[in-house]
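Hi U.,

Before I forget, here's the chain from the pilot set. I'm dumping it here mostly so it's searchable later in email.
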Amino acid sequence: MQVTINDQTLPVDLSHLRNLEEALVELNEKFIPDGQQLFQVEVNGQFFTERYPRESRYVTLGEVSTLDLKTVSDADLARSILTDAARQAEPLIQALEKSAALFRLAAEDEANHYFAQVLEAMRWLLQTGEGACQVLEVDLGRVTSPQIGDVSDFLKRFQDLLEEMLQVYGEEDYSLLADLMEYELLPMVLQWQKILSQL
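Structure:
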């Protein structure tokens, strides 16, 4: 089997392994340096992505004549994730608007469904931004934005607003919750989207 990483041929013997999963684990551990992540796998000239968890375990090495791996730096991957996170704010904005409208119409079951999606998306968006900043060694405590000032203060206000919304939700004051979502949270999500796209 011929193995390449970033178009460089590796003189490696994988005959002691049984399947593609084992080969990928060993190659990752031995040949992919710190600061790099496995990004793309081609098996026999075809892109390989698992359609179900651990599918690579069921591909025997006898079936593989060429294995081509591509890596990406942690920083490039983090930038890509930030770009994607900024794009993911759009569906969040739509869910916010929909949830607020449904709470105003007293369609609580459907509004609760959207509100749960909003909370999960908010959690993901904030964690993704913070995680990518750690990889990029960006100290959010030192970042400022012309629109919002100090980003760490902004994130504190963001967190305080989310806590207030959860309290209002627990009190079942859906009219106030809709107002908080539309008039306070929505502008903050738009600002966070701008921050992520500028990092």
